[in-house]
Every structure is written in C-alpha cells, then in structure tokens.
Amino acid sequence: MLDKGAIVIKDACILFDLIDLEILSEFYKLDCVVITTPQVIYEITNEKQLAEINGYIEADKLKVDGTGDLSDIVTITDENPGLTLTDASVIEIALRKNAAVLSSDKSLRNISQKKGLQVMGVLWIIERLYNVGIIEKEVALTKLAIYPEINKRAPKQETDDLIGKIQNQ
C-alpha cells in the first residue's frame, strides 16, 4: 500500500491507540517517514504519553512540521465545519506533502478521502506490522482482540474481518 519512504500523517487518536496497544515502537520500524503537526502534539496532555512521543521526536522518528499556512488551515475548517483546527492542520500538511493520512477519526477520514488523500488506521498498522514480520501472528491477533476495548469507536466488523484473515494465513 505505501512504498518505502512514504510519508504518513498522524492524528492524536492514532498516537493514543498505538501507545495503549503497546505497539508504538513497532510502528516506527515500518519503512515510512512519519510527520505530524504541532497542533497534534499540543493535544497530548497526558505527561507519560507526551514523554514517550517526545522521545520519538528527539530521535527524529516523528517529525513535527509547523510550516503550514494558518490561512489554509482556517479555510479547510471553514469548508468543513465538523473539523477542528488540529484536524485541518493534518489535512493541510497531507495535501502539501502529497501524503497519506493515518487516522481513526471518522470525520477526518471522510474529508481526507473526499480530498483524494489515502487514509489508513490502526487496522492497517497492525496488518502491516504482521505482514512485514515485525510482529508475530499471535501478537497481531491479541492486539486486534483488545483494540475494540481500548478504543470504543474501533470498527468492529473490520476488526473481526482482519482477525479472520490473519487466522487463516
């Protein structure tokens, strides 16, 4: 789906899910450049989560791009009243960098897709980690099983479908 070196933009929900699933370090083993915006980082209020994320920023595994034009971000929110400025900052950078959006937020996903952006979520991450051999089958199945407990908005049917797919491999 993404070629080596592709850019993935993340929102705070993805960061929280990866931390809660205890697969954030595995995620950074994938061959992709990971960029977010300062607005996403500002949403992280839990000190432990922020310390973990800052470690990846300091290691240059998570790049923070604050060069977006505020007027472009505001225009995106004006055109899509359901979006926050943080959501719009993610869409702005994805459009500017011609990048994929990595998000579990439904409205952000929908608007990103309408703008022609490729969108993936936690299920894509778990499947990719398994397919490239970063995590074992049992780990993938365990993470998928607990994902709906960690995130009540996780897509249940898609999660069950992926569990079935991996079990049959």
Topology:
Elements: E1 6-10, H1 12-20, H2 24-27, E2 32-36, H3 38-42, H4 47-58, E3 62-64, H5 70-79, H6 85-97, E4 100-102, H7 106-114, E5 119-120, H8 122-131, H9 137-150, H10 156-167
Parallel strand pairs: 1-2, 1-4, 2-3, 4-5
Helix pairs in contact: 5-6, 8-9, 9-10
Task: Walk me through what this model shows.
The protein is of the alpha/beta class and 169 residues long. It folds into 2 domains: 6-122, Rossmann fold; 123-167, no CATH class. The protein is 58% helix and 11% strand. It is built from 10 helices and 5 strands. It has a 5-stranded parallel β-sheet with strand order 3-2-1-4-5. Strand 4, helix 7 and strand 5 form a beta-alpha-beta unit. Helix 5 packs across helix 6 and helix 9 (137-150) runs antiparallel to helix 10 (156-167). The radius of gyration is 16 Å and the shape is globular. The model has no long low-confidence stretch (mean pLDDT 92).
Task: Provide tags for this entry.
169 residues, alpha/beta, Rossmann fold, 2 domains, 5-stranded parallel beta sheet, 5 strands, 58% helix, 11% strand, globular
Concise summary:
The protein is an alpha/beta fold and 169 residues long. The chain folds into 2 domains: 117 residues, Rossmann fold (3-Layer(aba) Sandwich); 45 residues, no CATH class.
